[in-house]
UniProtKB/TrEMBL annotation:
InterPro entries, alphabetized: OxRdtase_Mopterin-bd_dom, OxRdtase_Mopterin-bd_sf
Organism taxonomic ancestry: Bacteria, Bacillati, Bacillota, Bacilli, Bacillales
Taxonomy, superkingdom: Bacteria
Protein name from the UniProt record: Oxidoreductase molybdopterin-binding domain-containing protein
Pfam family membership, one: Oxidored_molyb
Domain Oxidoreductase molybdopterin-binding, first and last residues per copy: 48-131
């Protein structure tokens, strides 16, 4: 996938895996468009509620968390209950995002100010037995080629 290509992949414990494009967001196929400023005053633009996306992808009843993977290896892990207020910002000034492309995760009711993840390229639904709250950070992985 080209670095400037708009694609967000949905994987994991879902009935329907998707490779989402910009038109999927702008067409309203993924749910309503919300102006984010009244919800998250530090941001402007249009977003899709993750709750609408959940209806389409139909995650397994067994999933406990969603992992939001950014293009720079940053990731946020959110428990199921925090997803219902979360948004995916996809547009500012009627254009794709310049900062945070392709989409930015916003969690207005999250317990951490850092739950605003830019450049989300993959959303993975997982099951874990840990009762972990939301967490975030860079993945600490090194491939054998990098040693």
């Amino acid at each position: 996938m080209a670095k400037d290509a708009f694609q967000v992949v949905i994987r994991g414990l879902v009935t329907h895996e998707f490779d989402l494009e910009y038109s999927d967001f702008t067409s309203g196929k993924l749910g309503p468009h919300l102006e984010v400023t009244p919800i998250v005053p530090a941001f402007t633009g249009k977003a899709t509620p993750i709750s609408s996306l959940l209806e389409i992808i139909q995650p397994s009843v067994d999933y406990t968390h969603a992992v939001f993977h950014a293009s720079d290896d940053f990731q946020a892990v959110l428990p199921k209950n925090e997803l219902y207020s979360a948004l995916l910002l996809f547009q500012q000034e009627d254009k794709p995002l310049k900062k945070g492309f392709p989409v930015r995760l916003l969690v207005p009711d999250g317990h951490s100010d850092c739950l605003n993840v830019k450049s989300v390229v993959k959303i993975e639904f997982i099951k874990t037995t840990a009762q972990q709250p939301a967490e975030f950070g860079f993945k600490n992985t090194v491939s054998p080629e990098e040693l």
